[in-house]
Amino acid sequence: MKIDDNFYMKLAIDEAWKYQLLTYPNPAVGCTVVKNGEILAIEAHHEAGEAHAEVNALKAAYIKKNPNNLLKMKNSSHEIHDYLIKNHNGFFHDCEVFVTLEPCNHIGKTPACANLLKEIKPKRVIIAHKDINKEASGGCESLNEAGIEISLGCMEKVAYNLLYPFIKWRSGTFIFFKMAMTLNGSIDGNISSNQTLALTHTLRDKIDLMLIGGNTVRSDKPTLDARYIVGRAPNVMIYSKNKVFDNSIPLFKVPNREVIISDDLFKLLDYKFVMVEGTYSLMEILKERIDFVVLLVSPKIRKGLNALNDIDQDFEIIHENMIGKEKIIYLKRK
Amino acid sequence: MKIDDNFYMKLAIDEAWKYQLLTYPNPAVGCTVVKNGEILAIEAHHEAGEAHAEVNALKAAYIKKNPNNLLKMKNSSHEIHDYLIKNHNGFFHDCEVFVTLEPCNHIGKTPACANLLKEIKPKRVIIAHKDINKEASGGCESLNEAGIEISLGCMEKVAYNLLYPFIKWRSGTFIFFKMAMTLNGSIDGNISSNQTLALTHTLRDKIDLMLIGGNTVRSDKPTLDARYIVGRAPNVMIYSKNKVFDNSIPLFKVPNREVIISDDLFKLLDYKFVMVEGTYSLMEILKERIDFVVLLVSPKIRKGLNALNDIDQDFEIIHENMIGKEKIIYLKRK
Description:
The first copy, chain A, is α/β, with parallel strands linked by helices and 334 residues long. The mean pLDDT of chain A is 93.
């Protein structure tokens, strides 16, 4: 295996994918810090409002070599920025920083990463993909002006898939279809482990809208909340021509939730981040509009309804992780 | 992500899995070489008779820092051993060598890795799993005597799954069930890409025996050779109570191939390395005896026969790789 820039960047990309979709409205970003050839940190951005990937990685790198340092106790992005700027003492001058997205150049909920990098002056910053967010861009120029060597475009195509949800929800609507199934595509009964269910509920807590089919609501009577993580229940759009539902089912009883019953799919475009939970009929109806298919695969074989057996579609696997003992596969339509 | 011994060992384990089953009768082994914290090489054993993982990794590490060195031209295990022993000049004294299996201590088709390590004296050798092959074992003791620090048992459980086929075929029979399917478990028609088909033919070239069901032979009339890689066609056992077959089909016309027609599955135990190609009925009959299920998954959805839909079985995912744009998933029955 070749140990080169791509190798270090791929580690950053894979780390970022662990938090894909969970960073909304921010992009998923990963960062690897290498000091004189030694990997000191591989970290990612975890959640909007929390520290960016670069900040997490620079902190972890510094602590790796200074294990009992006060920095350990600093958790907010501001504190870490301040501490590193004051105390770096040249630590990063022989470091290379691999980051999947151009460091932000704008002060939002957290201070600008480009500014932090300018102050601590790593030897080189390797960037996979330019920022597409005009407000936050300009990081490259800013680092260049500070005399830091920049390499742009390392694994750009792979990083583009990582960035894709962000690109979509920045400028319009990102829609993903989520389904749990067994190895052989069965969706009957309880499929997922608790860990995978918790991920689904975490996703529900993040999204702007969940779309579900009317028949599923009628037959399964799901609650569609985020109780496993004590999170926010998403607003729900029930896709149905027939507008009559039993209003006593739990779905309608969740406080602070909006439920729309509609067969107008253009309504989805009023939202930025939409999750579709359903079977093949909904997937077939929406297929031109779905950005990602997210399959949660439990490693078991079961009899029963095969949710995907009535469509004919090719995909590209753009990423996959394990969630405990199960799999998550991210697909894009070909 | 924690950057520790486990991190470097996992890189070696993942590299080794790329050659899982292809190293028969040798074990699949991987090796990472780290010099002063810098990863110089991640390599694996590719094929019996060729250089072991340690030798490939030590060579790659040396060349990484001496790019125009003569060692580049040395390909046989003997040549690399000789060259490194004569010319290492202390290069490895500050290296840590992570290897998934105890370095062999015995001179077979290739010289002993333990001897090479003793001569070049790395700072530390980290070993995931002890060798279970008495003939080749003793590597640890040998390195210890030479004053090299040994760490044994790093990621031992994960390395055990890597080693499992070797453990089985050393002492008896290793049987794996191979099947190509779509994302939703359909096996109708042509599923796999050419790259995946080439892997199947490479496996056929390695195995001692292929088991196939009589009905498949009657209906599909497969040749079951290794023509995509111009390899050796495996011997075949057709599992069938009815011994009558049309002898004019291609399967029976392959030169230098033995074909057994039998319904006595105990015959499998006369072989060390058996691949089963078939559908659920054969899987169900053999299930107690199958060591690995190897699924080749093409990222598409298709209508049609779901090969796995009539059994009820839980698995553990022990590894997965990409083969080009498709997936290979290694499963063990729970």
